[in-house]
Amino acid sequence: MIYIDQLQRPVHLPATPKRIVSLVPSLTELLVDLGLEEALVGVTKFCVHPAPIRKAKVIIGGTKNFHFDRIRELKPDLIIGNKEENYLEGIEALEKDFPVWVSDVKSLEEALEMIEGIGEVTGRDAEAGEVTAKVRDCMKRELPFKGTAVYLIWKDPLMTVGRDTFVNEMMQRAGYKNLISENRYPEISERDLVFLHPEYLLLSSEPFPFAEKHRTYFQKLLPETRVLMVDGEMFSWFGSRILKAFSYFQTLVK
């Protein structure tokens, strides 16, 4: 069978995969939720959901530094990757020996396409359809507008989230208007933050682990802004965790 991934690349599979390696934490969780835990043989060190998965499976390194020898020893018949979270050279090296299905998600619609695509390539069409149907139900429930916001993902240098990203859409779904007009993940200065004067500053728990000391610092810098620590997984994980995200957004302060 020939499948088309989200980079519009053909992925050739002779049969339904029985040995899967996941290079993406959010997609590891999705694979388990689709009933593929037994088929999942390798995961990254950042694959923390479900909790026991890292102890039960072989750790193949990080999302950007694979242990190619470990992956080859696992003899996967399918590898699941992501354009943004992994790196091109690593993906190209792996696909010389194994089928690699690569996702590329910058919106909720693309996330739904990805879930259905992974369901198709793994023989879990029905299970994937159930997940996407539930997500579409969640999308029908609009949350009230909270205010303008800036979402920080890194400390030194300060980096934020702009347009053309999955996080940007999830911010909108949560009720925030993103004040960053640039695309992707631009750097921002403290002076820029003061000038933008957001009603909310959202400090993400990942990839940089913002902590209470950072919240205190930015609250002094922006005394009229509500500085919140937020769960980065709920804003950036584009697999089945989306279902938990909508409930999480309802708990954020109005």
From TrEMBL:
Source organism, top-level taxon: Bacteria
Pfam families for this protein: Peripla_BP_2
The parts of the chain that form a coiled coil are none
Q: Does the keyword Signal apply?
A: yes
| Residue intervals of the Fe/B12 periplasmic-binding domain | 19-254
- Report the NCBIfam families cross-referenced here: TroA_like
Q: What is this protein called?
A: Helical backbone metal receptor
